[in-house]
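Bumping my old thread because nobody answered last time. Still need a sequence for this structure:
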């Protein structure tokens, strides 16, 4: 789950999720001026720059986030996504390799590197990484799910009062950890490369 530096960071993040990139960017710029060594701020602003198709700005923020937290695999995986988005698939693969080296249990990075390898025609390498992603996902599912009851039926039903439009990203995301069914659907979504169909 996303960790916020303060309420302004959370506000900017939510604006970003709502695709109000200009307002979010203003807040992130102010926060980064005050806290230039906060990798989460830089990474979040980098996501905005991706959506605005600002390659240099995005990569600069992701590079700085990697510099600040160079032992955190997620930083490399985030930059890998940006690098592939802007057409540097081979550099993205290198970043995913580093992310996996730092976090060998990162099923998403195994899946994503497999997708990139497949895109470049490295079918055997891709299949190997897809298999590893599946094995890790299954192991993580076995670890996470049995230890938690299926809360889907235990959580009070408040959907009657709220429409789907009012559901937040976080409430939907949290379902992944409350329900075995939602967790399996999430893993399937990841395996498909983040595609709905």
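Sorry it took so long. Here it is:
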């Amino acid at each position: 789950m996303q960790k916020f530096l303060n309420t302004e960071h959370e506000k900017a993040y939510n604006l970003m999720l709502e695709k109000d990139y200009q307002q979010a960017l203003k807040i992130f710029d102010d926060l980064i001026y005050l806290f230039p060594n906060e990798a989460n701020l830089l990474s979040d602003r980098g996501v905005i720059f991706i959506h605005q198709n600002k390659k240099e700005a995005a990569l600069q923020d992701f590079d700085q986030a990697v510099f600040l937290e160079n032992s955190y695999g997620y930083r490399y995986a985030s930059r890998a996504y940006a690098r592939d988005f802007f057409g540097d698939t081979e550099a993205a693969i290198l970043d995913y390799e580093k992310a996996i080296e730092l976090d060998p249990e990162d099923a998403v990075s195994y899946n994503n590197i497999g997708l990139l390898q497949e895109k470049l025609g490295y079918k055997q390498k891709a299949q190997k990484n897809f298999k590893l992603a599946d094995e890790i996902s299954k192991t993580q599912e076995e670890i996470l799910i049995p230890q938690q009851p299926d809360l889907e039926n235990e959580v009070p039903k408040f959907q009657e009062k709220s429409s789907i439009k009012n559901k937040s990203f976080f409430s939907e995301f949290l379902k992944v950890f409350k329900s075995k069914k939602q967790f399996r659907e999430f893993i399937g979504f990841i395996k498909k490369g983040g595609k709905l169909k």
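The mean pLDDT is 84. Let me know if any region looks off to you.
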